[in-house]
Write a sequence for this structure.
């Protein structure tokens, strides 16, 4: 579903918050809602998601520092939860924050608690959006401040891709994206074979990365979270690979035949799978 996202006044925002909160199960709030109207108007904005002119969700975005945007409040009417409203609001917030030349976005969240499914889902939602806790350790009673960098080409491409999808410019199925990726691989191979300029090869590799990102988003995965999992997996395998090399008396693998490298890599994969 496509939602219309627009800016609204503080008064309208408080009315919408009251409507959303009236349908929630009673629980403690992370923020004081009075802050939504006591701060200077030019230091925060209110983004509302609408369906057929009906407001169904709200995001309050503050600018406490020149290079930072902070999510003060995010809520959606129960009947519209799980339908992409929060994601649409977050995307609009990213775009607006980038326009203000913001470099980071933060949010205060309650750590995941097995006894409170709401807090766990909220925390996981922000993780999927690319937010990471500023501190590794926390207790159940604490509020965790999470941060997401906005100054990266990956973010810009994700934002453009999501905006295109919201506009209706999207792939019809996964198979077509995969075919495009295969086609890009062929073009890269051909560019190398024809010894084309480096700029041309770089462009083709960029198209391949774009295709992989499109497939990631189409299948419902956030690219940043997907890359984090890849980093964790590759890091674990490299640690295992170095350990195996040391066991064989190898300080480095430079100059070793490719057959040995493949053998050691296969063993490293086996070891990390067993962990």
């Amino acid at each position: 579903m496509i939602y219309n996202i627009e800016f609204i006044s503080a008064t309208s925002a408080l009315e919408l918050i009251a409507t959303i909160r009236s349908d929630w199960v009673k629980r403690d709030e992370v923020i004081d809602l009075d802050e939504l109207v006591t701060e200077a108007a030019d230091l925060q904005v209110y983004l509302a998601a609408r369906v057929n002119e009906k407001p169904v969700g709200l995001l309050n975005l503050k600018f406490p520092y020149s290079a930072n945007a902070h999510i003060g409040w995010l809520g959606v009417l129960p009947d519209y939860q799980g339908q992409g409203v929060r994601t649409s609001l977050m995307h609009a917030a990213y775009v607006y924050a980038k326009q203000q030349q913001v470099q980071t976005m933060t949010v205060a969240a309650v750590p995941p608690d097995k006894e409170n499914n709401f807090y766990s889902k909220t925390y996981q939602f922000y993780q999927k959006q690319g937010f990471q806790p500023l501190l590794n350790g926390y207790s159940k009673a604490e509020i965790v401040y999470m941060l997401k960098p906005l100054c990266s080409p990956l973010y810009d491409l994700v934002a453009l891709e999501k905006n295109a999808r919201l506009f209706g410019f999207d792939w019809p199925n996964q198979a077509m994206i995969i075919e495009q990726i295969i086609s890009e691989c062929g073009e890269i191979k051909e560019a190398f074979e024809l010894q084309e300029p480096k700029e041309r090869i770089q462009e083709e590799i960029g198209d391949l990365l774009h295709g992989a990102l499109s497939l990631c988003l189409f299948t419902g995965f956030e690219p940043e979270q997907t890359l984090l999992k890849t980093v964790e997996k590759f890091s674990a395998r490299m640690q295992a690979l170095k350990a195996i090399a040391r066991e064989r008396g190898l300080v480095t693998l430079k100059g070793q035949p490719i057959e040995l490298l493949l053998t050691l890599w296969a063993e490293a994969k086996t070891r990390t799978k067993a962990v």
Observations:
- DSSP finds nine helices and seven strands in the chain.
